[in-house]
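#data-curation
PF: Archiving a pair of folding outputs for the training set. Convention for this channel: one message per protein, sequence first, structure tokens after, nothing in between. First:
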Amino acid sequence: MGRPAGPPSVTLKEAATMVGKSTRWVQLRVTEGYLQKTDRGRYVISDFVQGVVAYYEGLAEKSNQKAAATRSSDARTREIELRIAERERRLIPIEDASAVVADLAGLVLAELTGLPARITRDLDQRKEIEKATDDLVRRIKERASQRADALRSSGVDLDQG
């Protein structure tokens, strides 16, 4: 007389072989509640497959949660580092830096504009000096504009020409 018909099942060893794991691995999943044995110590194949899938889905979920926690922790760490850098005056708001640069640029422009008159009263010489200072101011404005655009877009390599 054969076994009573029931859902197809496998032994512990067969179950381990099906998933390429050890019998100990299968037993641990039973202890964790992912897999159930029948009263005869066998594993119903459909239940076994569902249990293995549930186990790996749980791992994936834990991994996603860990990754999210890591990202959150990294963001908090970065925020703290920025606050510390600001307190240590290694970091200042871009608006403050821009205001200082604008103030200095205005001073340089005013001084350069008045330079020809301070150097000579000779109108021909003054025109030549004005031409040279106007050229200088134009180049400075072009460079400042390029740097400002780069800084606004994503940053600038201050070592660049």
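PF: Second:
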Amino acid sequence: MGDKVVLGYWAIRGLAQPLRFYLEYLGLPYEEKRYYKPEEWFADVTSAPLNQHVLVNLPYIKDGDELVFESQALYVYLAYRANKPELLGQNPKEQVTLASVRGVLQDLFKSLITLFTIPEDQFEAKKDNFFNQEVLWIAEKLSKFLENQKWAVGDNLTYIDFQLFEAEEILRNYKPEVFTTLVGLKKHNENFANLPAIKAYQVSDKMIARPFYPPGMYRWG
């Protein structure tokens, strides 16, 4: 293990933003390797040590000689690295609930990506109908689920809350007038934003406010 873990990802929010929040909450010393151009990533991925790993991908964690790939695996690795395995769920019920919420969140993120990659010449005509038909119902389902509990699995914070917060931030920025009606998501968003580590990070110079998605490839972000 190294003195600092390294988080590698593009210089956008994307898949890494919940991990940035997570690292801040965990209090692990870390630094970022931000890739601004595809050729920067290509240079690294074709060189040691990244080119020695079959599963190489972004985002990744480098911890001394240890390399970990794939977003969901990073949350598990970092929880153990920080001696906070309770963030993976403290009992079977929490772990099952976490997995259920993760599945719904994956559907929400996929729908948002599909929305924001509608061809440019069709986006204005199709965006509202697509949002109402393909995105909103998933958000409403999550919101209803969260109405009577503080965190995704109940009383205890877990790593899925970090991913949930990023989904909320996308919705809050894209459709603020709709987000205010999603009571459960709005409450969760406020609770999470007021965690001391998250509150401090969001006003620091490390925070990436925008873009959420790669500029030019997405219609919004």
